[in-house]
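pipeline/complex-builder :: batch 7 item 3
reading input block
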Amino acid sequence: MLQRLEHLLGIEDLTREQITFILDQAKPFQEFQRHPLKKLATLRGKTVAIAFFESSTRTRISFTTAAARLGADTMNLQAESSSLKKGESLLDTVRTLEAMRPDGIVIRHSSSGAPEFIARRLGMPVVNAGDGTHEHPTQALLDALTIRDRKGKLEGWNLTILGDILHSRVARSNIHLLSKFGVRITLCGPAMWVPRELETLAPNIRRVARVEEALDGADAIIALRVQTERLHEPALAAEEYILRYQLTPQRLKLARPDALVLHPGPMIRGLEIDDAVADGPQSCVLEQVTNGLAIRMALLYHLVGGAPVEPPADKPQAKE
Amino acid sequence: MLLIKNGRVLDPASKTDATQDVLLDGGRIAKTGVNLAAPDAEVFDASGMIVAPGFVDLHCHLREPGQELSETIETGTRAAARGGFTAVCCMPNTQPVNDNASITRGIVERAAAAGGVRVWPIGAASIGSKGEALAEIAAMKDAGIVAVSDDGKPVATARLMRQVMDYCNTLGLPVIDHCEDPSLFAGGVMREGPRSIRLGLKGIPAESESICAGRDVEIAALTRSRLHIAHMSTTAALEHVRLAKRIGLRVTCEVTPHHFTLCDEDVRYDTNYKMNPPLASRADVSALIVGIADGNVDAIATDHAPHHPASKDVEFDRAPFGIIGFETAIALTLGELVHPGKISLMRMVELFTTGPARVLGIERKIAAGEPADITIFSTHHPWTYHAVESPSKSRNSPFDGRTFQGAPMATVVNGHVVYRREQTAAA
């Protein structure tokens, strides 16, 4: 029996069956993106709160659009326009949103564990849209959908992740997801961003120092963004990173000829990835964006639309 | 007069382990012996219980003055009494910092007014604990401090530590250091390791503590002074202490109950698992327990660190460090160390009495003429800890809801029973 999801807080605790179920659910929504009229009535009357406590453009637009195309209304909260700057706690902020009776909340936050923290206290589905350096589950799901579409299956491939793995929630979610399908994962980047402990996250993970060795035989490559805003360590000179780790056409030739190139965006061309690779035939970057909509529609449909929502707390009083 | 009858008296100083009566009179221990008679005395039946010298906690935060939302001297000492402590040493990181005699006197007066557990303040080593100029240590000593520390952070530099130790040596005060290298600590929120990587929480390497402990041991050697390492949590720091003791330096250390009970693998997104130093690796926990058993660890101290509920009910990386610990210290020591046979009951009593007393340069024993401070506890009394029932103003404990075998049964300070456990059928 498939365990129904209550929240989507991370990939780590999902089963392979749950992941496959979400990817399968996304299928019709992928096709739907090609329709001339992109509006369903599935979630009409539902409201999704989209609370971003950390700056983001693409993920926020993706979730907002996914909700809109399902017919749901959205309540948008952005950190810079919220009362957080006036000193209100996260808990008070989300409780205020809850009091407006949304049917689910999508949260992005710079603190690892913030979605779990609010999920324990709110009576509605919580979707993690990226928390600190912990997880970014919808990104891993859309990456998996992209790989599965292009290569026909997930099982058994060799994946290489390049860049700042330590500070990457995208890397963690992808590692958790793909390792559940027997993908062999190679991590490569400057040593201070690829600590030994990463190998304990899942089976079949190895760290490789040289990018040439890391790319050898890869079936898919995820080039991570160099996240200058999340660095706690002294930053590496950009020239050093380019010299040793940039994904260039020459280096890409070391991978399988049909290797996929993924990037979670936003890309910094000329830093972690060369123009020719970003725009080349192996690049899946724009497909990832479209698949992100499909994954997020499938999730909102499942989490917000699926079961009847608990009656509001004031209902019993009304009876009396 | 109070007559404590038929308890098993455990007194490390005299190596006594025998069923005896203890008669207290006028704030002093009058006499000990079998079948003592004192017709006028109130009687406490300690049958089946351990009667020990009054327990001393070397490390706590009572938050007064300045953070009374989290704790006051009155609420904190009531919690300490419930935990079986007869004296507690409160760290100077109040607001303002206890770095001068008037603040010390204020703490002493508030404690006297509370009238329960003894409060022995620890003074700041530097003004405002800022790591620059020396605090008014001699004046604070006259006002009642028993040690100095810039706890909450380390004594900032080796040079300042040298000055503090040299100066405190002449005053006969131990220097207590919170060992941490700020550049390695660097905004971390839990111990660096597989668990911090998995949770995406910024890690603090173990070396943050041991590098500072190594520095302090070297300065203690240079100055021939008394050094006490607070809440020690790593194997490497313990090795520094071990070496220091072997070569005859006057170096001591303490370990908290949470550091020998929990490890970094227990950390989850619950801010009651966030403390400084952070919960250590499983290997470090084993090493600490070896050190506790073999005598290299001198004392168990709680690092009781109350934070009012709203301040802890936040994102993990935004929460303050620390947990409350008075009321669970005895039960955790019994449950984690004594019951599994890792240390003897006598060793446990040492770690709460003669151990901390030696750190402070005082005595702690059950003998005629000594202060009438007695801790009475049960090794088997079953109970469940509910933080909500604590007299403390704070609730931040990872042990909330835990069931224990063994508990403090009564706390006697200066001849007065300041706490007595209700023995109901429900217990």
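note: Chain A has a mean pLDDT of 91.
queue -> next item
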